[in-house]
Amino acid sequence: MKRTIVLFLCFVFSFNLFAEAPKTEIRAVWLTTIYGLDWPKRPAKTKMEYELQQEELRTLLDRLQGANINMILLQVRLRGDVIYRSAIEPASKVFSGQYGVMPGYDPLTFAIEECHKRGMECHAWFVTFPVGSEKTVREQGRLSVVKRHPELCKRHNGEWFLDPGLPEARTYLRSLVKELVANYDIDGVHFDYIRYPEKANRFPDKSLHRKYGKNKTLADWRRENISLFVSSVYDDIKALKPWVQVSSSPLGKFSRIPKSPNAGWTAYESVFQDVRRWLKEGKHDMIVPMMYYLYDDFFPFIDNWVENANGRFIVPGLGAYRIDKAEGNWEVSHITDQIDYARSFGVSGAAFFRAKNLIGGNKGLYDELKNNYYNYPAMLPPLTWLNNEQPTAPEEIRVEKIGNELKLSWDSPKEDEKTAFYTVYYSPSDSIDTTSAKSILATGLRDTVLFLPLQGTAEQEFSFSVSSSTRYRIESIPSCETYYYYSKYSK
Cis ω on the peptide bond leading into residue 277 (within 30° of 0)? Predict the structure, then answer.
């Protein structure tokens, strides 16, 4: 049995001067593995060094859990190399120091387990069409997809890319995604660079356009190529595991809108991402646009994304890295103003680029989220368009005092295989408001036991309740409430 301890009881009692955070909200973080940016710091070769890598991730996730982050977008495909066991592409060198050599453990399996222990979802962040610089291709040698399948790749602006216009290149990527989904207990696949590259006007695909473009303009044909991949890979994933979510990070500005006719670099016009079509056709569950801008380059485009959501989740990607002096020298209020605006306009949460920038303490962003904006846990919003079947509620919680802790336990709902995780509600009184975020003690629990440290010597009363949820995040009704009275001294 895993021992899960609630560490954040103090926040349940805290008085919040800010508007209460929503009960359901996506709070995501991109966790990069390339170049040692977030994890791991350096390659390892010995058992002890591998264990240090693992402890490094645990520490990072603990820190994110401390701010009630509930979703990790973990980079699993970098530039034609991966951090998991694949029969198609080589292992990245970031963990072992050598392409094609896995470390002494499976980094993706380990990361999924550690995320789930903390009530977090783990989404596999997949860099789609780029496959490396000239230097990367040389280092990968015969393992590189450029060497193994040169017919699928194009060199452009000093980099190599799988060509989106080649049906065989799209099929190759689909096989890689299907392998990933089939073999790992991921909660989602998150596509990055699911587009044409920068300076696309010089991308060498004119002969392919003549061959496959029929009567379409070059721009429309390119958008069609990306959309064909999006549609087919969405169907592939749902056929294997229908609960696995599909998302992507398009450019932060969808298109040139009336409020900003000179928007500059846009998803639709510049890199041929027809995200409106993906949403309209139901081929995405979540859009995480990279909105690393301020003021008129941010606020009108939130409205534009929400207007085109078609009931799917819009989760703006916020530039935590921009707080660094060298990256823009933003103030924390720039980020929190964006959270406030996005919440008021009906988005489903926020994602932060990237993990180290969020937890690094620059100007106090982490503390602002932990103490004010994310001071209570949040459930992830339900995927009602995929499956809306409600699971059976657990029976009431049993409470047992062991030392300075309360052991909370409950039984899985009998004969109900739909349950995937649990949410425990709490109140320091004789009743619980299960509609409020401040009543959530813990969510995303995979186990049926939770330990709650007792604080202080004063007499205390507690009420507890528990609900179950499916992989589609559909929640049961809460269980009957359990009332427990605690006094350190016998009466």
Answer: no
